[in-house]
Amino acid sequence: MTAGTERIYLNYINGEWTPSSTNQIEASINPANIRDIVGYVQQSNIEDLNVAVEAARRAQAAWRKLSGPKRGEYLFRTADILEQRLDEIAETMTREMGKTLPEAKGEVQRGVNILRYYAGEGMRHIGDVIPSTNSEALMFTTRVPLGVVGVITPWNFPVAIPIWKIAPALIYGNTVIFKPAQETAVTAAKVVECFDQAGVPAGVLNFVAGKGSVIGNAIAEHPHIHAITFTGSNEVGKTIAQKAVARGAKYQLEMGGKNPVIVLEDADLDRAVEATISGGLRSTGQKCTATSRIFVQSSIYEPFKEQLLAKIKQLKIGNGLEEGVWMGPCASQKQLETVLYYIEKGIEEGATLLYGGRRLDGGELGNGFYVEPTVFENVSPNMTIAREEIFGPVLALIKVDTFEEAVALANDTSFGLSASIFTQNIAKMLTFIQEIEAGLVRINEESAGVELQAPFGGMKQSSSHSREQGRAAIEFFTAIKTVFVKG
Ligand code: NAP
Ligand code: MG
Fold first, then answer.
1. What confidence tens digit (pLDDT) does each residue in 75-89 have?
2. Binding site membership of 41 for ligand 1 (Cβ less than 6 Å)
3. Which of 122, 139, 225, 300 could form a disulfide with 132, with the two C-beta atoms 3.0–4.6 Å apart?
4. Active-site residue 254, yes or no?
5. 98 C-alpha to center of ligand 2: Å?
6. Do 1 and 12 touch, CB atoms closer than 8 A?
7. Which CATH number covers residue 290?
């Protein structure tokens, strides 16, 4: 396509902002108003990727030789620049994928904090001394980088997810090829600009925008990319894993969720309602940790439902840049269509639509991908809306008689990312912690919510069983060497 007046964002390869050899660009549009073009991004091909991989390979030798604290200095500088550009990058994020400005600002701040956390990791221990059976020897472990790491990310957290992959990759001495989601490649380019402004050496971080089916796929297959860290859908994740296994590359997948919340009869109802709304509908339900299935004990089912609906009716939906708007549009037309498809499926399969369910297209909203927050009841466990990830503002209420029934139903899913329970009963909390099949367990708190210094990841089909963030990231981004030294 040919560009309008908006800025064209280039690839970043070997420290230079470079157009793709295809000469093709793609518009990134605002889902709140499709007439607003946020910018143009490159539609790269495999040749562009090959050049980037070569640059990353070359840069590896010097980068891995730098000390951890020295690498950390680059991340500290990147954090400072990102912080200076917080408002601007948050606004770009809102324009590019629709989440409200306060949420976008929170996410950029999160990115800053993650950078600082991993900058500090450059000074922390990377091994252990292990007593050898030979008393004259020294045995210890150390860690070495993997080499070139491919980073493939989704559009729902366009700043935080790339940074929570790139920052640990770099601090432990790897160089990076970063392919963002096309939907949010302008925001991603701005994040890369911060690394560039911080003076990160040429080739250490390379940015190649393009289609997942082209660039993402080629990253998975590239013989000189030693590891791939991916966040996105299960479908794509599985193909990446197969390709990585076939060529012996390390891989890490963070994928979908179908996250349950259990509300027991002794719960603080106000809090449970607030948390269900926040966990289920913030970011228009487009979080992998979003609340999706809500199991409510029958004795409090009606008051819970009433309170929930009363609050949802008050939510202000609109352009996330406007003050007071609580929920923005779906991030893309495709996402809107997916959400509407699942709502239709819910109705067809006999669930009761309690609230919402329609596209919002009156007035200004007609130029965007808006959908009403939607609540179903009489949802049975075998219905599609109880089984498949929707990734939209759709809640399924399910009445249960007992705690045990709730846990059994909550576990009746192929996913296992996040789960929460509302109760005052300590014994039930402890049983829940033991029995629930989820990587993130939350008590009296919403299902969505992550702290950067703690491990993050799911069980079952939500992940490839590794963890990201916090200290856990070292496990993926390094290899252990066990060393035996005899004088
Ligand atoms: P997606 O379609 O899987 O895309 C994720 C990334 O993979 C994008 O960069 C995409 O490129 C790329 N991709 C697409 N096809 C590919 C292929 N054949 N080979 C390699 N890469 C390919 O997912 P999405 O729709 O963007 O994101 C929504 C999903 O992400 C949801 O399922 C959600 O649960 C999951 N998610 C999980 C977490 C978590 O941490 N567990 C966090 C956020 C989101 P394009 O630019 O072409 O799309
Ligand atoms: Mg967009």
1. 999 999 999 999 999
2. no
3. 139
4. yes
5. 8
6. no
7. 3.40.309.10
Contact 225, 33 (CB under 8 A): no
Give the CA distances from residue 446 to residues 35, 266, 296, 357, 419, in Å, rounded to whole numbers and listed in that order.
Answer: 35, 17, 15, 23, 8
Which band of pLDDT confidence, cut at 50, 70 and 90, is reported for residue 5? Answer: confident
Residue with tokens 């981004």: 477
Closest CA to 179 of 166, 160, 193: 166
On the 0-12 / 13-18 / 19+ scale of CB atoms within 10 A, 313 is exposed
249 and 377, same domain (yes or no): no
- CA-232 nearest atom, ligand 1: 30
pLDDT given at position 141:
98
Instruction: Give me the numbers of helices (H) and strands (E) for the chain, helices first please.
Output: 15, 20
Whole-number Å distance between alpha carbons of 16 and 66: 22
Q: Which of 231, 282, 387 to mutate to test the pocket of ligand 1 (most atoms within 8 A of CB)?
A: 231
Ligand 1 and 213: CB distance under 6 A: yes
Distance separating alpha carbons of residues 398 and 409, to the nearest angstrom: 9
Residue type, 328: G
In the numeric block, which tokens belong to residue 307? 């309170």
Ligand 1: residue whose CA is nearest its atom 40: 254
Is 48 within the bounds of a domain? yes
Helix (H) / strand (E) element for 9: namely: none
* Range of the structural domain that residue 160 is part of: 2-255+463-486
Angle at 23 between CA 18 and CA 29, to 5 degrees: 90
Residue 36 buriedness (CB in 10 A; 0-12 / 13-18 / 19+)? middle
Q: Does the CB atom of residue 457 touch ligand 1 within 6 A?
A: no
Q: How many domains does the chain have?
A: 2
In sequence order, which residues have a C-beta less than 8 Å from that of residue 302 and are 6 or more positions away?
Answer: none
Q: Please name the amino acid found at residue 146.
A: L
Starting from the CA of residue 334, give the closest ligand. Answer: 1
- Main-chain phi, psi angles of 204, to 5 degrees: -70, -40
Which residue in the list 91, 96, 121, 288 is annotated as catalytic?
288
Domain shared by 474 and 439, yes or no: no
State how far the Cα of 78 lies from the Cα of 83, in Å rounded to an integer.
8
Q: Whose CA is nearest to atom 32 of ligand 1?
A: 233
Domain identity same for 285 and 239: no
Prediction pTM value: 0.98
CA dist 1 and 207 (Å) reads 21
What average pLDDT does the segment 431-457 reach? 97
Contact 38, 28 (CB under 8 A): yes
